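Pilot study result, target chain (363 residues):
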Amino acid sequence: MDLAALCDPGCETFCAQDVQRILGRPATPAEGCVFIPDATREEAALLNYHLLTASRVLAVLSRSCDAASLLATDFSPFLVRGGAFKVVARENGERAHEVEESLGEALHKRGLPVDLTKPSMTIVAWRQGASCVVGVDLSGRDLGKREYRAFHTRRSLRSTIVASALFAGEAVGRRIIDPYSIDGTVAIEAVLAATRTSPQLYKKEFAFMHMPFAADKDWSAFFLAEDSRRGSEASVRCFYPLVRLLKMGRANAKLAGIDKLLSQTKCELRWLSTKLVEHNTEVLITVPPVSSKHVPPKDVEQVQDELFAEAKRALMPAGRIVLIAEKKAELLNPAQRHGFELKKEWVVRRGGAQFFFLIFAAP
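Predicted structure:
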């Protein structure tokens, strides 16, 4: 079967790299998703279990959102005997009620029963820009909602965005520090990627496991075998400006099952060099503070200036800074003052929010 992994707009290349990491073969990026052709049910399971950058995995039924494209589809591999379905449609991040009604009505006329409350099969219609895919939801839930995210702040970012930034900065498996953490997410996602630890480690339940094409396999044993392949080392350090943030980060890391693999401590940004070996870090990645109605630009610029000053001491000659930023312009002057050059940038979106992935080369 062909699969599609749904991701945040702008993160398609990084989602394809994530698929390559898991399956060892390429995926084809499209707008808002990546396609994986001729996948086995085991590969579908691996993607649901290990993907860091995607929200759902679909079994592709059609590359068109036209109801006519589904009229001849055989749903027997996905729909249990006596089961019912529902349709969920999204277009450019918004609910698409007309598409839901059109597809749902066409399939109901074919004799498929509908259940909007507890369906045994959910059909997802996903349109992003010029790209469209209709498929059966194999995940059964939003894979981007991490179970470990029990504690967060108003500035916390979605885990799929953070994980995508790791791939953008070629940071997976590198010697990494997050010098200004707000909840531990950056460091936790880095450890998950480096050790092949599943973000679904304590929630091994997916919709596909109960579908006819997969119901005869012992998936509990399959996932336990995957867990046995986890790595036991990661070179990731995380620093928090406040004790309360450190406590949140430690709790989240424990819930993720990687607290023993991650170094976490409180440290004000200006004292970071006292905690590190000089020029020994490959990648510094963080979510820098931004100005707001509560925080004047002058205060933010002081923290950003300290960030680049400390990075200059910490990074190896070929090292780099990866920033997940809401405001690009605020970071350019502090970077230039300390000799950092902006090498690459990407714009990614999540709902109505826009973020920049900014890659600065060490001077």
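One observation from the pilot: The chain is about 30% helix and 25% strand. A full batch analysis is planned for the follow-on phase.
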